[in-house]
Write a structure and sequence with these properties.
With about 250 residues, the chain is mainly alpha-helical. It has 11 helices and 2 strands. Strands 1-2 form a two-stranded antiparallel sheet.
Amino acid sequence: MIKNVHGNTVDHLGEAIVAGRYGIGASIPPEPILCLELGVSRTVLREAVKSLIAKGLMTTGPKVGTRVLPSECWNWFDPDVIAWQSKAGLTPEFLRDLQDLRRVVEPAAMRLAAEHATLQDVAEIELAYAGMKRAVEEGGDYVTYDLRFHQGLLRASRNRMLVQMSKALGALLRTSFEISTRIKDSPMQSLPLHREVLDAVIVHDADRAEKAIRVLIDSAHNDIEKVLTSRLRLPRLNQPAPILKMT
């Protein structure tokens, strides 16, 4: 997606903060310098700073100026923040935090999905699963369908907060799924694990659904640990999802 001047300015400053070019507690360069460096007006720059304050990366106040906040203040559910971290380099701590989050959220969500999923919900998740299966067998975009599968399950929970979280979790989940595709045959081996989750939801078996998603998350955790201990490259979310080759 092509961004406008405002979006590009937010990206430039956000990437600089996440990459550590502006230290925690440090002030960003004065407006005239940044405007000249970025080729933007003061109005554009100020709007960009407001966006970064809203994302938790910066704070501003009288006499202290505009300063960078520590990473624990950042909005880690914001897709831009995730993309900037990906571009700067994903860390083991970030990836393990993601796995812990999945272990907390998804098992409970699967129980709700098993209890509340409608025929329409199941049909949409089946389409996502079919896309994953087709990508494994014929080659294609596995990650996008994997993301649709999990977001469909979260929506099927019929819990409004989890539905909203499914949107926020999108970039985080994509990170996990892309890493798994770095492991040879991982998508093919994960298909039956996904099928088990979906089958449990279809028959409204909450215990089975919770157990199945835990197995799936543990499998993803093992993939991530393999990548972290290898020389395989971690994904960058500012690039298209990788395409699987035909098996």
